[in-house]
Design goal:
There is one protein chain. The protein is mostly helical. It contains 11 helices and 3 strands. The protein has a domain of 160 residues: N-(1-d-carboxylethyl)-l-norvaline Dehydrogenase, domain 2 (Orthogonal Bundle), CATH 1.10.1040.10. 61% of the residues lie in helices and 7% in strands.
Length: 234
């Protein structure tokens, strides 16, 4: 976990208990998994677990896709997850991060996505949707080498990122607006090794899943997309 992620997700503990040593990434993962889609839905971080659709999504992502592949005893894993989710329900959740959100997501969730694919041979649907939420969150136009101006409803927000990230997302979304090709957007996103450190198109089925999630988020809205995903997995 990078230094900024540690600062954003620091917990009120002086050290991690030995039986939870493999779970240090769990708080950040739980907080990150829905935050971008929820923000685009008009929810702040404290409201995520109070919304039935997003709460169900977060629980499924944590218990079905993140927790099973973390290296710790089962009892410790479930105790840690229950504690983290209870804290989120009580409002103990950092707000959405506008400063380098891509590296925040990558540090918190990409390891779980890769572990799940390595173990199961498929892409985890909730984590794939989480990435779609991040990509939608980064939709906008570059106003400088390090800033993207984005829209949410009738308002706006600015994302600060490295120049290569700003250039990629501003160009990728501009291309989508010209050609309407969601598959091309997903393929370009997953294939940018500067974003992820590897070509994620190699994960079978990922590009099609991401393209579909991005299209639904854009056409129906992220909240309706989460409801649809929950129904498909229940």
């Amino acid at each position: 976990m990078n230094a900024s992620l540690n600062r954003n997700y620091s917990r009120a503990k002086t050290r991690t208990p030995p039986n939870r040593a493999g779970l240090s990434r769990l708080p950040a993962a739980a907080h990150q998994v829905a935050i971008h889609a929820a923000y685009l839905s008009g929810l702040d971080a404290a409201a995520v677990m109070k919304n039935d659709a997003f709460a169900s999504f977060v629980r499924r992502a944590v218990f079905d896709e993140i927790l099973p592949l973390m290296a710790a005893p089962e009892a410790a894993k479930h105790a840690e997850a229950d504690e983290v989710l209870a804290g989120m329900l009580d409002g103990d959740a950092p707000e959405v991060v506008f400063d380098h959100p891509v590296s925040q997501w990558r540090a918190a969730l990409l390891p779980s996505l890769l572990d799940y694919h390595r173990s199961r041979g498929t892409v985890p649907p909730s984590l794939a949707f989480s990435l779609a939420g991040l990509v939608a969150f980064c939709r906008g136009r570059a106003v400088s080498d390090v800033e993207i101006e984005c829209r949410r409803g009738t308002g706006g927000y600015a994302i600060r990122e490295d120049p290569a990230v700003v250039s990629f997302f501003s160009e990728a979304w501009a291309n989508l607006e010209m050609n309407g090709d969601w598959y091309a957007l997903a393929y370009a996103t997953l294939g940018d090794t500067g974003l992820w450190g590897q070509d994620l198109n190699r994960l079978r089925g990922f590009v099609g899943t991401l393209a579909q999630d991005l299209a639904i988020i854009s056409t129906s809205g992220p909240r309706a997309a989460v409801v649809s995903l929950n129904a498909a997995q229940s």
